[in-house]
Amino acid sequence: MRLSELESLTADAALWDNPQKAQKLMSERNTLDFNLNNFRQMSQSCSDLKELAELTEAEDDQAGLDEIAAQLTDLQNKVKHAELEALLSGEADANDAFLEVHSGSGGTEAQDWAEMLLRMYSRWAEAHNYKVEYVEETEGEVAGIKSATLKISGHNAYGWLKSETGVHRLVRISPFDSNARRHTSFASVGVYPVIDDNIEININEADCRVDTYRASGAGGQHINKTDSAVRITHIPTGIVVQCQNQRSQFQNRETAWKMLKARLYEMEIKKREAKAMEQRDNQGDNGWGYQIRSYVLQPYKMVKDLRTEVETSDTKAVLDGDIDLFLSAALADKLGEARV
Predict the structure, then answer these.
(1) Using one digit for the tens of pLDDT, what is the confidence trace for 251-290?
(2) pLDDT score, position 24
(3) Can you give the chain as a three-state secondary structure string?
(4) CA-CA distance, 262 to 192, in Å (whole number)?
């Protein structure tokens, strides 16, 4: 059994003489262990529900049978989720993720929408027992945020969230409009993997400009107000990253370099995907300027993914972080494309 083999290998102290090999094997071991534990738990749940159903049926307890049917439906959804997760085999799918949200044009309305999205992803992450850290946050002038970056840590965080990159559109009656008119707002989301030592990204420091500064304005409700903030500009690509969540300038600098590596890695992945999509005459699905989802709160309620056509009228649940329906559909769609 591969897991037993990996446990023996990682228990050997000599393995750590080669840290890169050791980390790769540890990552594989942890992924296998996670998937097997999930399988065992779901198998046990299935057996338990089967026994309970037989007893409940013998007692002619219809209410009990209805409850068991609901639990079976929930288990079925978990199995489908696990099946998709088992197929997350990309080079960085198992990694933690940086998630950025930027408000579009439109001032306060767009900045409020960006904060709503930030809350949605934070709620989703917390519901899945992921750790959420605020890396950077710039507040809006009146309400909301201009931009923010989260680090979401946990198994397959990047694999699940990578399909969220793109433009998100909101239609609603504006709470900031005294005439109660309907407004359309936009915000962009970018998701990048936290790069570990298994993925080699070389950066020439001579190509970068490093600036230190104090967090502007209030600096964000989740950010420390110190002079230790760090901004790195990668001159060849124009990529800019910044970190201000630590009190130590050294820690902020270290995180900023990790963010830059993540952005450069993601840029390379997008180039590969764009080339593959061009070959299939299906360009543009992952661009920053591409609208991926529409959230309508008035005159009716609907959230619709424009790539998979998946939609729901339960807008409150979605904005409270219940986005698995969209994540699963996007992942299944992408895996289906990969098989073409």
Answers:
(1) 898 899 989 988 888 888 777 666 545 543 433 333 345 8
(2) 66
(3) CHHHHHHHHHHCHHHHHCHHHHHHHHHHHHHHHHHHHHHHHHHHHHHHHHHHHHHHHHCCCHHHHHHHHHHHHHHHHHHHHHHHHHCCCCCCCCCCEEEEEEECCCCHHHHHHHHHHHHHHHHHHHHCCCEEEEEEEEECCCCCEEEEEEEEECCCHHHHHHHHCEEEEEEEECCCCCCCCEEEEEEEEEEEECCCCCCCCCCCHHHEEEEEECCCCCCCCCCCCCCCEEEEEECCCCEEEEECCCCCHHHHHHHHHHHHHHHHHHHHHHHHHHHHHHHCCCCCCCCCCCEEEEEECCCCCEEEECCCCCEECCHHHHHCCCCHHHHHHHHHHHHHHHHC
(4) 5
All structural domains of the chain with their residue ranges: 2-86, 97-339
pLDDT digits (tens, 9 = 90+) for 20-34: 677 667 767 777 777
The CATH class, in words, for 2-86 is mainly alpha
Distance CA 241, CA 66 (A): 52
Give tens-digit pLDDT for 45-83.
888 888 888 888 888 888 878 888 888 888 887 787 777
Out of 226-230, 265-269, 283-287, 315-319, least confident range: 283-287
Q: Which CATH architecture has domain 97-339?
A: 2-Layer Sandwich (3.30)
Residue percentage of the chain with pLDDT more than 70:
84
